[in-house]
Amino acid sequence: MGTKNLTSEQLRSRVAKFKDLTRNEGGFPDSEIEGCRRTLMNVLGYEPPKDEEGRIMSSPVGPKAAESSAIPVSEGLNIGFVECTPGNGVMSHDHDTNETFTVISGQWRFTCNDDDDVSVDLGPLDTISVPAGVERRFTNLASNDGDDSPSLLLVAVAGDQPRAFFEEDYLERANTEGDFTPQVDRRKGLASAATD
């Protein structure tokens, strides 16, 4: 099989400089829930998935970030960043494809399963890969400096149009009780040790 050549212009069209990424807030079912505030920066892919009638469905980066990809390609891999302050993250959800996280800065807790019963804490350059169909959430536990400054997480999701699923009863329980959201970690104590 032969190789391809790129022109200088084609190569530059596939470059995303972090300082130039579009920062998106909101756009998720949990975006207004306390403890779920975060900024998303779409680097590669995340074309919004559509249902049978052509309506846009929930993507792992949400509709706003999905439309602002720095490198808008559909080549089976999607990459973006999540940034949030300690105590924030995302409520429990799942995807129809694999999702892999690499911590860039801060300390993060990753919690899995329908019962929200297994977690691991990770720091800079640690990576975790969650298979399709597994409930997951993540919480920023602390910044590198131990203050309230935001931390950064790199997210890679397989597929051309990956979907995210939030359970309706989770949304209701999150709004009333804080269950399945980063607020649960806040009540348990953000600095508590991870479980396996």
Gist?
The chain has 196 residues and is of the alpha+beta class. The protein contains four helices and eleven strands, in the order αββαβββββββββαα.
Care to describe what's here?
- By secondary structure, the protein is of the alpha+beta class.
- Helix content is 14%, strand content 31%.
- The chain is built from four helices and eleven strands; from the N terminus they run H-E-E-H-E-E-E-E-E-E-E-E-E-H-H.
- The chain has helices spanning 8-12, 62-66, 168-177, 182-188; strands spanning 24-25, 39-44, 77-84, 89-95, 99-103, 107-112, 118-122, 127-130, 136-142, 151-158, 164-165.
- Strands 1-2-3-10-5-8 form a six-stranded antiparallel beta sheet. Strands 7-6-9-4-11 form a five-stranded antiparallel beta sheet, with helices on one face.
- Strand 6 and strand 7 form a beta hairpin.
- The longest helix has 10 residues, at 168-177.
- 36% of the residues are buried.
